[in-house]
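Aim 2 progress update. The chain analyzed this quarter is reproduced below.
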Amino acid sequence: MTDRLAGLLRHYRLRAQVFHSGRFCGHALYDGAHGYIHLLRAGRLRVSSPLHADFALEGPCVLFYPRAAAHHFVAETGDAPDLVCAGVELGAGAGNPLALALPVVTVLPLDRVPQLATLLDLLFAEAAEVHCGRQAAIDRLCELVLIHLLRYLMDEGAAEPGLLAGLADPRLARALSAMHDAPAEAWSLESLSGVAGMSRARFAVAFRETVGETPGAYLAGWRINVACSLLRRGRPVGLIADAVGYGNAPALARAFRSRLGCSPTEWAARRGEAGASQSRQNGLSASKSA
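Predicted structure tokens:
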């Protein structure tokens, strides 16, 4: 069976950090610094955000913002909601195509995915106790919840063309996963259609109509995304070129300029300057707060 997440998670690490567990009273404002997952075991909340219309959330359910999203909770009258909240990072800011393809917000009743209900019970049980390794345990359980949620969203696909729709198609998913797993492979329309088990012409049309771009365009974008991920880790440009199928640094530089308007070294330098600037701003904010 095709593992649709393996190649993506190899280059974009999935992270979750739980910052609230238990009863929730009053209201809370969450900034837009990263994504969020909220697991509501029982109770009702009013949710507002600039990204969507206000709505009432009633447990047991999951509320998922895969990308940076400011939002506001207000507990409705009655018993205080029982809630686990975590900040999540799926690599949207780093170009993870799956994170960018996900809906702005997902609300999912737990009876739609029984495995999530089981995990939620484990998560709340662990959060309620004070054992050594508690934070690590609830963070890892929350990451497992995220994986099950991503599986569900990939299985559901999407009404509009895009990566989710491609991953929901068993044949196209095989070709997409092959590209994700081995970006350095000399993929051709013929080899990808063979992986998908389709004729070249039928594969080309189905891929373009379902994913929204040609297989060659998707592969080129994925290779540049992987190259950027490796640059963030400080890998040498020559090794990166080989790892993503360009063979040498000049060929990778040409691909970079075509897609991003700069060379890999220029891109890395800009990233370094942006990171240093953000660190200075964070330090200034911390000193003002103190």
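The longest strand covers residues 15-23. Residues 162 and 272 are 31 Å apart (CA to CA). These observations will guide the mutagenesis experiments scheduled for the next reporting period.
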